[in-house]
Amino acid sequence: MKIDGRSMRTIWASDDGRSVNIIDQTRLPHSFEIAALETMEDAGRAILTMQVRGAPLIGATAAYGLALAVAHDPSSTAMQDARSHLLKQRPTAVNLRWALDEMMRVLAPLPEGERASAAWRHAARIADEDVESCRLIGVNGMPLIEEIARRKGPGESVNILTHCNAGWLACVDWGTATSPIYHAHDAGPPVHVWVDETRPRNQGAALTAYELGSHGVPHTIIVDNAGGHLMQRGQVDLVIVGTDRVAANGDVANKIGTYLKALAADDTGVPFYVALPGSTIDWSCSKGSDIEIEERSADEVLLMTGRLDNGAGAKVATVAIGAPGSPAANPAFDVTPARLVTGFITERGVAPASPAGLRQLYPEMGGAA
Ligand code: MRU
Questions:
Q1: What is the pTM for the complete model shown?
Q2: What is the CA(55)–ligand 1 centre distance, in A?
Q3: For a tag on the chain, would you pick the N or C end, based on fewer CB atoms within 10 A?
Q4: Which domains does the chain have, with CATH numbers?
């Protein structure tokens, strides 16, 4: 996607092949900064502190992190240690494990002398494949938007609600939930996006709104609690969210608050789609309740960071919002049962959120019965 007219991805290897560049998402939307990852530990820290976040990008960063580790020490022991270190940084997005397993599958059989160059190549391939998957999610999802536009009539915008950031910043390019939106905006019917702010870290207000604004897509930020009301009033035509892990039965783990949107969509008859690449399906996990839910720091709930403009120039400041001394809990994801999901939008097409739907899309995986 474009930033100030320049095509960018969220992660790329440096020209000298010694480090990896990322967009530091902890600085957005207040400043646009690129950070260099020079070691496997840097990559781990970037995942943990959410300089990079979003399931597909966490996977791509882990792949490059393993490449950085192998460049330093190509032994099997060092590779295994790097895999374990990277894997424990965030527990819910399965793309992390998927990307590390992909890297190990390719690298482990190679002689040590060939591992470093193969690791860079394979990490780049994982990133490239994510771009193509997300592009195809857009191609496959756009007809859903076009169909609603046809029903609404010429000149009427299709109103799409999304939660968290499942945009290009969460992936390598395009995004998952946003890819059909970008495709529609560029070539199809007019769209307008309701952007859930997504407390506590505000990935919607800070990142999705930044992306959509940079691309010129009409959008409005809403508080997380507004979605149900807008759906009742007929102001939402479609919900599209991303996911961090889909279980083999079709249950969906995504950013905390997704489940409430799915309940409201079900009650009001608004279609609720989940957009994902195949790398986000955990075939070894039979149901959503088995998915580990990350518990993050209470500080994310009790503190808020934003731009302070007192007339003497803007600066970024963090303030406390809770009653002094009150504790906070911060589960970062929730599970939406498959029965509340209208369908999956994937790089292979659209299918029902069920074992049969997943099997139809990925027959080579067998799928759950
Ligand atoms: O905690 P985050 O910001 O990594 O959570 C991200 C999300 O929940 C996204 O919706 C999900 O990873 C899908 S990203 C294409």
A1: 0.97
A2: 6
A3: C
A4: 2-129 (1.20.120.420), 153-297+329-368 (3.40.50.10470), 298-328 (no CATH)
